[in-house]
């Protein structure tokens, strides 16, 4: 009986690991899609596509820019200050995803922002995104971008 219990725990652990791998792949795909739209938000339809990844009541906390309380304001700021000027790049290997029971996931990592037309990315920061899965749709409800600093030079 003890061996059966150990076997069941092992199987549950493997199932949980498979779920985590699937969740990580989903969030990584969403991150790529969302920031592809961000990086091309000066092109027709891309800013609206980028906006669709965020809950209307998004809370966006930025260590240098302060807090933005709605999607409409956040998207207006993106349009005015980012589109056609910067691109975001995820630092390879930095994305970490953790499940949130009955809600969604928390994604953390590092990213750089690069001026368009330049070959170097001069700044780096950490991020946290809280993703909610509702009605088969993933949206970010909270976003944090912090620890902005100059990128290490080679």
Instruction: Compute the separation of the termini in Å.
Output: 59 Å
- What is the name of the CATH topology? Nuclear Transport Factor 2, Chain: A
Radius of gyration: 18 Å
Q: Return the domain count.
A: 1
Structural class: alpha+beta
Count of helix runs: 3
Shape: globular
Which architecture does the CATH hierarchy give at level 2?
A: Roll
What's the main sheet like?
Answer: 7 strands, mixed
Q: Could you tell me the number of beta strands?
A: 7
Helix content: 25-40%
Contiguous uncertain segments of 5+ residues: 7-17
- Name the average pLDDT: 90
Query: What is the CATH level 1 assignment?
Result: Alpha Beta
Query: What sequence of helices (H) and strands (E) makes up the elements?
Result: HHEEHEEEEE
Beta content comes to 35-45%
């Amino acid at each position: 009986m003890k061996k059966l219990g150990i076997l069941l725990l092992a199987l549950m652990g493997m199932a949980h690991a498979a779920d985590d791998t699937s969740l990580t792949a989903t969030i990584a795909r969403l991150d790529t899609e969302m920031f592809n739209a961000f990086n091309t938000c000066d092109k027709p339809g891309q800013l609206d596509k980028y906006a669709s990844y965020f809950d209307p009541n998004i809370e966006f906390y930025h260590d240098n820019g302060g807090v933005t309380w709605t999607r409409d304001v956040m998207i207006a700021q993106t349009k005015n200050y980012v589109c056609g000027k910067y691109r975001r790049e995820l630092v390879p290997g930095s994305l970490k995803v953790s499940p949130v029971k009955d809600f969604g996931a928390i994604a953390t990592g590092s990213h750089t922002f690069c001026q368009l037309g330049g070959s170097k990315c001069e700044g780096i920061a950490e991020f946290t995104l809280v993703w909610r899965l509702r009605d088969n749709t993933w949206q970010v409800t909270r976003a944090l971008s912090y620890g902005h600093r100059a990128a290490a030079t080679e």
